[in-house]
Amino acid sequence: MMREELKIRVVKGPDGVEFEVDPLRDYFCEAPPASHPPAYAKIVEDLFNWARSHSLWILGFGTGCGAIEMRPLMTPRFDAYRYGIAWRPTPRQANLLVISGYLSVKTLKRAIRAYEQMQNPKYVVGLGSCTINGGMYWDSYNTIKRLDDYMPVDLYITGCMPRPEALLQGFEDLKKLIRAGKAEGANQYAEKFEWYKANQKQVIHDWDMPDYNW
Amino acid sequence: MMRALHDRLNALFPLGELTEQRPDLAFLTVPREHLRSIILHLRDLEGFSHLVLLTAVDWLEEGNFQLTYLLSNRGKAVDLGLRVMIPRDGASMDSIHDIWPTAATYQRELREMFGIQFPDSPGVNDDFILEGWIDMPPYRRDFDTKAFSAKTFKEREGRMTTDPEQHMKQQLYPDGA
Amino acid sequence: MSYTPDRSQYPAKKADGTLDIDLTSGKYLKLWHGPNHPGITGNMSVELTVCGDEVVDAKTHVGYLHRGFEKLMERRSFIQVFPIVCRVCVPEPDFNEYCYAAAVEELAGIKVPPLADWIRTLILEMGRVNSYMMYLGGQAGAFGLGVIGQWTTYVRDLMLDRFEELTGARIYHMFIMPGGVRDRLPEGFEQRMEETLREIESTLKDVYDVMFCNAVFKKRSVGVGYIDPALMDAYGVTGPNARAGGVAKDVRRDQPYLVYNELDFEPVVGKDSDIYTRADVRRRDVTMSVDLIRQILAKMPKDGPVMAVTPNVLHWKIPRGETYIRGECSRGEYGYYLVTDGSGFPRRINVRGPSYTHAVALLERMIVNLNISDVAGLMVSLHTYPPEIER
């Protein structure tokens, strides 16, 4: 069932001219994502990766209960800012999407949009057991079980829920992956785009957004 | 206390079974056509001014939905739950959103999760919790969440689930003690 | 100097009570406040229709955190439900454990040892302090005072340390189980708790000076977000939201549970029913909780069992019955409605979260005619936790 404002409709402009509006086509770009090639020399790519690893900007989107342990990380006791980790309010400014816990199908849709709106290079961290295999909610009708079917996950942090120390350790591990050039989730998403879309559409039954929106 | 209230109500309305759970909590079965007048009577004359919750229980075997309207009297610190049995097939109930505006939210949820229709309740047919749901209302007893989950979401290999009873027998008491 | 907004452009009401909003006219704009928005309380969203920068219509969308708990509980045995109930509500999970355990005990006829009741009360009050600390940070943050959040999160962490010492976990404690509690207090707990309480009191004093005496905070919160006390019952308003309007509803005093009738306290009541009063009521409530924790530690029995004898959990069947258990959590009345049918599994569990009534019907009504920039402050002031709306 598509929402009223997303349907194709005829609009009368202020000058009296009538024209057709298709919100899904007109408001979004429909081009599929492209793979981002490495730099021309390995040493340059290494330099880029070193720089990327030191500015992880997290999208402040608390998708599940794990978000409650992000708050202590922002305050002096655990202070993730000293490792170059900051929180940003909008996907355009962030390069790390932390899926903080279980994703219900309704949130999965929003998380996919948030991920696609982020700029390259971008990374995904799955937090908590429920993103790995369903965790506590393994038999729930409304939560997904494997996050990596729907999004390219670079790193998982286990626990229910992971402690702030575990999160800090996880972010350090992610930095190592980035420096080693192994955090290629965004490129993987571009290469296996059809597969990811097929998985996503299998669980999201009312797909009322363009295939790639950015 | 609850017994006296029951006697007062019984003089006015035909009532069903009364269960006194605690001194300050009782459940009362009422016929569905008198529910509205009983609620109004309780709210306006007996001081049960707070609707605590409105929910349903699915008695699949008996073919009924039990709707529970839990009302609270703050001044006297007592609660009264009104049970209404409605048939499961084509379940439909009168809305009480004009008595308590907040009941509209509960009725929206019941419509979505149990498939009980509440005609006239504002916005009752809008999606509340689920989005793009295609199966039967999930809180019904005959909906199997495990089967649905196994069918819809792919599992990761290596996850083990054991029956607690079998597991304890094998691991803790291997010699059958 | 008073300000009278120009509302001549506002939409007219149609015959059926809905607003006549024509989005193509260009006068109105639809704005999604959430789910990915820094000014939202958790993962939910409010669909605002705005005219200029004032809200003319609002609709709450919930369900982003729906895990189907009430369904999952129906296919777990009574002891298997115990580890998942706390996950219903993240910031104050202990109320779920208490209400579930008390409901099971009542229907199964289990008598809990007195010491377990005292420890349960202690845990609930500790959780209340935590929840209020998060609230104070969020309320100040919604009006641009970021530093309050830094301080309150720090003292909340200290309280989480006490939780860890007592239960072994920071967030989900799984400590209050049907029959009692898992353990007694560790050695030297009272003294370390006293240190934490002193830290909390000194932070509260700073919070009062910096937040409640701050001119910006006062200007943005006094008189904003008024709940008419006459509407409290119609919309099922409970807890601090009701007490800030002068309605002295407090389950702890009205229907004392656990050991609250042995403690000495008086519900905190305000009178103006606006954002400022609600924040102030909660700040004073923390002081009261701190006092209650001291009383509990002083009055509680020193030894005794903490766990009653429960049946073999694998063959635990509870006869047919139904009950409702309520408690006063930091947001209002929290309750569990449990129905059993004589089998080893609950027939139905319904969670009554206070945000259910606050954040849907009431919020949709209160948000109208508010400035867009005050929407976040209003939502926080109702102390909304979305997971207890949708479970």
Quick recap of the structure?
Chain A has 214 residues and is an alpha/beta fold.
What is the percent of helical residues of chain C? 40-55%
Question: What do we call the CATH homologous superfamily of chain B?
Answer: NADH:ubiquinone oxidoreductase Nqo5 subunit
Shape of chain C: globular
Number of domains of chain C: 2
Q: How big a fraction of the residues of chain B is strand?
A: 15-25%
Question: What's the architecture of the largest domain in chain C in CATH terms?
Answer: Orthogonal Bundle
What is the overall pLDDT average of chain B? Answer: 84
**How far apart lie the N and C ends of chain C?**
46 Å
Oligomer: heterotrimer
Q: Main sheet of chain C, how many strands, which sense, barrel?
A: 3 strands, antiparallel
CATH class of chain B, named: Alpha Beta
Q: For the record, give the distance between the C-alpha atoms at the N and C termini of chain B, rounded to a whole number.
A: 51 Å
Class from helix and strand fractions of chain B = alpha+beta
List segments of chain B where confidence is low: pLDDT < 50 over at least 5 consecutive residues. Answer: none
SSE pattern of chain C: EEEHHHHHEEHHHHHEEEHHH
